[in-house]
Amino acid sequence: MELVTDEKIKTKVLYSELKEYGFKLDSRVRCIHCGRPFQGKGLRVFREGESHFVYCKFPDCDGSIIDIVAEDDEDFAEIFPVS
Which of 14, 51, 53, 60 is the most buried (most CB within 10 A)? Predict the structure, then answer.
């Protein structure tokens, strides 16, 4: 897989993927793999062939788009307290 560095392509993919999960580019989200919060536009986009894959902002985490929740999601409040 190759990291997408073209901002137009990255933004287009992220806009579409985040919208599918009910988020926007400026939404504050949290990865449930690593527990770290960030803005949705910080997600990393990779390309393999004609497909795009979206992963957590942090390179040391392998969380994907399905592992992203709202930063203040009540279902995860005990695990990741909001300060």
Answer: 14
pLDDT per residue of the chain (83 residues) written in tens, 0 to 9 = 999 999 999 999 999 999 999 999 999 999 999 989 999 999 999 999 999 999 999 999 999 988 899 988 877 767 766 55
Tokens of 39: 């803005």
Contacting residues for 35 by C-beta, under 8 A, at least 6 apart: 79, 80
> Which three-class secondary structure state does DSSP give residue 51?
strand
pTM (predicted TM-score): 0.85
Report the alpha-carbon distance of residue 69 to residue 52 in Å, rounded.
20
